[in-house]
Amino acid sequence: MIVTIDGPAGAGKSSAARSLANRLGFRFLDTGAMYRAVVFAALEQGVELTDADALEQVAAQLRIELGDQSVLVNDQDVTRAIRTQAITSATRYAADHPGIRALLVDQQRAAAAGHECVTEGRDQGSVVFPDAECKVFLTASERTRGERRYHDLIARGEQVTLEEVLEKQRERDERDTTRAVGALIQSSDAVVLNTDGMSPDEVVDRLYEIVQQRR
Ligand code: C5P
């Protein structure tokens, strides 16, 4: 069984999807981490993010390993390093690149092959796993999403204001929903879950129920 969880930034997808996968005993794929990892590696290698060909080369040669709690890139642990605000903003160079999307989509399908899997991103139900048995569109209001991300960043010691976070989130939402390939769309066969006012545990409980109804 494949469970896809798509939705906008800050809806709480990653932590909810990871907990759900643990509870179900399924493999977990954090596909946003893969786009982040490409940009992180390019910056480390001194590659210009605007050089589309060079960026694709970086992606093609990268070995990304998504662990339960960690992300390794060519054996280097980048779990925290790929979550900074700077990487978050720059990730669009990888996400907007059709060639890199094609590479990563292949890797995502390979990672799920032969496994029961919870996979999380923007295009999982629409493009990567159109035949998934269970599709969820996880969302929340702009304000709730911005506040969650703001508290996350502050807890990690970043210097940001809520206004800045909301502004960047609007830009990211715009990019995510309008990119030519792999744009965030709500599949007609996805269950919509709005997490406004729900605790993280309540979100996981509800997701678990949704999956059980489809097993
Ligand atoms: O989910 P996360 O915030 O880690 O994703 C980072 C960026 O990667 C997002 O802003 C989105 O643009 C992109 N992304 C994507 N397709 C996916 C997952 C993430 O384009 N499947």
TrEMBL record:
Its EC number is 2.7.4.25. GO terms for cellular component: cytosol. It catalyses: CMP + ATP = CDP + ADP; dCMP + ATP = dCDP + ADP. InterPro entries: Cytidylate_kin, Cytidylate_kinase_dom, P-loop_NTPase. CDD domains: CMPK. It is an enzyme of class 2 (transferase). GO terms for biological process: nucleobase-containing small molecule interconversion; pyrimidine nucleotide metabolic process. It comes from the Bacteria. Residues 3-212 form the Cytidylate kinase domain. This is Cytidylate kinase. ATP binds at G7, P8, A9, G10, A11, G12, K13, S14, S15.
